[in-house]
Amino acid sequence: MQTFAYARPTTLAEAFSILQAHGRDVRLLAGGTDLIIRLRDGTARPTIVVDVKRIPELRPAIREEAGRLTISATTVMSEIAANERVRRHFVALAEAAVYLATAPKSNRVYVAWTAAQAAARETPAAGVPLHIRNAPTQLMKDLGYGAGYEYAHAVPEGYTPQDYLPDEVADRVFYEPTAFGFEKEIAKRLEWWRSLRARSRAPAEPDDR
Q1: Could you tell me the fold of the domain covering 108-201?
Q2: What would the pLDDT profile of 26-58 be if each residue is shown by its tens digit?
Q3: Which CATH architecture group holds 5-102?
Q4: Tens-digit pLDDT profile for residues 169-196
Q5: For residues 104 and 22, what is the distance between their CA atoms, to the nearest angstrom?
């Protein structure tokens, strides 16, 4: 975990001042966030972490006013699920809070997105493969734009084993699902796609006729 500054403002004005001073390098620590996990695995690298739990206006609170429910920023899912007012008048919200609090969590999409952004920054001149380039003019068609493109929805599998990344990152794997929750099903689908790709690239068997 990289080092970072830690701030605990006691007023909204103080918090806003820190946010304005540090911009995108700030991460907020509040109820229900996964910041600690992201700091540990390196997917979040802030220069300063702002703990907003001491700000009176943001302290954990669930209020009902004129039939409207207000939940403060530092309230965690378990508090929502256990709140008597929520359980009595907002049953669907209580059930959703329980589902979200107990559902398997994963940051693999965020990790993949971060890695993809880094790859894009590292290879700014990488070219888009010709077969997925749009060809609105005859010149572009003559240059090979769009040639060989295969429409995935036109095949029974709904997937065509074409390359969509530039050559510089063609072999990179950005997203790797976990073995938990719905990501287990995503992993099966990705493996099936890999098998289709391998089958399409296997050498044709000789005709013995």
Answers
A1: post-AAA+ oligomerization domain-like (1.10.3710)
A2: 998 876 567 877 788 777 889 999 998 888 888
A3: 2-Layer Sandwich (3.30)
A4: 998 999 999 999 999 999 999 999 999 9
A5: 33
